[in-house]
Design a protein that fits this description.
The chain is mainly alpha-helical. Helices cover 62% and strands 1% of the residues. It has a two-stranded antiparallel ribbon. Helix 1 (24-35) runs parallel beside helix 10, helix 2 (40-51) runs antiparallel to helix 9 and helix 4 crosses helix 15 (373-400).
Length: 556
């Protein structure tokens, strides 16, 4: 396929459009289903192993961080309802080059994350079907074969229509929440010493507050997916009302569920029953919710949790396949990716080619990388950069496009937007060396990749210079920083510990604010008029949606 550098072409009257078939319940289910995947079934074990009971504090703090990162999407998604939000919104605010880079980062996160979820599904399935996963947690050939079958089924489901994909999301989301809530409620009858024993007897924060920070980085991936509400925007009924409600409601629902389940898991852990010395939080990393339930002496509850994990990962896999295809589709519509990916199937009126393309990449990851703990950190890093860009885009668009109606207007955006940008920067740092290096390098690969589709002028290069400095700066800060933030280092070098916490937080805050201010000024840097040479604002992209009600295809 060849890339075109011509201006985006407006769809003709005969060109098929996307169907608006997703309502509020369906969008909340897609978003909640996309967030709650496999992570919750091992979340507290992972966070608890580095933070102890203080992981509960990290969980609540992480929920607050996610809300701050999600709120800009609520305003922007309602004001600019367009497919591919994590790409389309920064493109409108920061320019085509920056939009492409954010779309590239999010696409990396999406198809790698989909592969990770399906891989975990195979691990749970291995509980019932021997031979799918080795004792070291590596997927076997037969496990990879089954994973590809499920990937193909999810892809076909979403090609047939987003309506059926959202129906599947509603069913699978309800089915995954029932076992989780049942675990949380039943576990209240098995709390140790009134529920306070495990929280206080062995130290509430045995690894200090630095451990809580690391726990937040490890738990972040379990919260990603909140932006799902703005990705299929052109397929949502009444998007200006539905998108902000679905975004905020989904994050609140997930945070409450995670906190409830997390408290039960920690407070009801029976040490000897799960084979761990009493009070040794550092050894709890392999304890799943099903193991906790088995420790109560309720084998049936453990089996229900395993079934819930299978349903959860299968449901999330279907949701992520729906979402990952929308990113190359949205970019191709703007001639910033291979053009055939921007076509809509005439029969089903879904981006079928883009869905297949994304799933082929997911299949390649499933085959090449049968184990994904480190890749999860890479995915977190590549998605945090677009999250930071969304916060920046909010204030830029309020300045550059004040006339657009905003059905939901974020209070205190002048403060919350830079705070969100800084929080995303800190989470990238916490994601640990060497994955900060790997994730940043993958993002930097988008700079030369852009030349396949556009030849940027000097102004465009100036507009994205801050992104390059931001990514390189994160690598440097991670290398110079706290050696506590290291995970499975495969490199011969590690952080030198020039500074520790809290000095690293101060440096990251200053660095984040400087990058935010630079990005803001770069986005509003006026383009010279071709005749007079005087400055003028950058024009809206030809493919941007009208400011009035948007109608694409038949209303559902």
């Amino acid at each position: 396929m060849t890339a075109s550098t011509s201006a985006p072409v407006e769809p003709s009257a005969s060109a098929p459009g996307l169907k608006r078939e997703v309502g509020l319940g369906g969008l909340i289910s897609i978003t909640v289903g996309g967030i709650i995947g496999s992570g919750i079934f091992a979340l507290m074990a992972t966070m608890g192993s580095v933070a102890g009971p203080a992981a509960l504090v990290g969980l609540l703090l992480l929920g607050g961080v996610i809300i701050v990162l999600a709120l800009p999407y609520a305003e922007l998604g309602a004001a600019y309802p367009r497919t591919g939000g994590p790409y389309a919104l920064p493109r409108r605010a920061l320019g085509e080059y920056a939009g492409f880079l954010m779309g590239w980062g999010y696409f990396l996160y999406a198809f790698v994350g989909t592969a990770a979820i399906i891989d975990v599904f195979i691990e749970y399935l291995g509980t019932y079907i021997p031979g799918l996963v080795t004792t070291a947690g590596i997927t076997t050939g037969s496990g990879i074969g089954i994973s590809l079958v499920f990937l193909a089924a999810f892809t076909l489901l979403n090609i047939v229509g987003v309506k059926w994909g959202s129906v599947f999301a509603v069913v699978s989301t309800a089915a995954k929440l029932i076992p989780l809530l049942l675990f949380a409620v039943v576990g209240l009858f098995f709390l140790r010493e009134g529920g306070l024993g495990n929280l206080t007897n062995f130290g509430f924060a045995p690894f200090g507050w630095t451990g809580v920070m690391f726990a937040m980085a490890l738990g972040f991936f379990a919260f990603t997916g909140f932006e799902a509400a703005v990705i299929p925007s052109e397929e949502v009924r009444n998007p200006r009302r539905t998108i902000p409600i679905a975004t905020i409601a989904s994050v609140l629902i997930v945070t409450i569920i995670y906190a409830f389940v997390g408290f039960t898991a920690i407070a009801s852990l029976h040490w000897n029953a799960v084979g761990i010395p009493v009070g040794q939080w550092g050894q709890t990393g392999g304890v799943l919710l099903s193991n906790v339930a088995d420790g109560w002496g309720l084998a049936a509850m453990g089996a229900i949790v395993v079934a819930g994990a299978l349903i959860s990962t299968a449901g999330a896999g279907g949701d992520w396949v729906l979402l990952q295809g929308r990113m190359p589709y949205a970019m191709a519509k703007d001639n910033l990716f291979f053009q055939r990916l921007g076509e809509v199937d005439h029969r089903f009126r879904t981006p079928a080619i883009a869905l297949v393309f994304a799933s082929v990449l997911t299949a390649a990851v499933l085959i090449a990388l049968p184990s994904f703990p480190e890749v999860v950190l890479i995915a977190s890093i590549t998605v945090l950069v677009p999250y930071a860009a969304a916060a920046l885009s909010l204030t830029v668009l309020r300045r550059s496009d004040p006339a657009t109606a905003r059905p939901f207007r974020l209070p205190g955006a002048a403060v919350l937007a830079p705070v969100g940008f800084v929080l995303a920067t800190i989470l990238i740092y916490w994601a640990s060396w060497p994955w900060t290096l790997v994730g940043a390098l993958l993002m930097l690969a988008g700079f030369p990749l852009y030349y396949l589709f556009r030849r940027p002028n000097l102004r465009e290069l100036g507009q994205v210079a801050w992104i390059a400095v931001y990514l390189v700066g994160l690598i440097v800060l991670s290398y110079l920083g706290n050696p506590f933030f290291v995970y499975q280092n495969f490199l011969p070098v590690q952080p030198i510990g020039l500074y520790g916490t809290p000095l690293d937080l101060l440096l990251l805050t200053v660095f984040g604010l400087v990058m935010y201010a630079w990005g803001y000024r770069s986005a509003l840097w006026p383009a010279p008029h071709p005749r007079t040479g005087r400055d003028r604002p950058a024009p809206e992209a030809a493919s941007d949606p009208p400011r009035g009600p948007v109608t694409i295809g038949r209303e559902g």
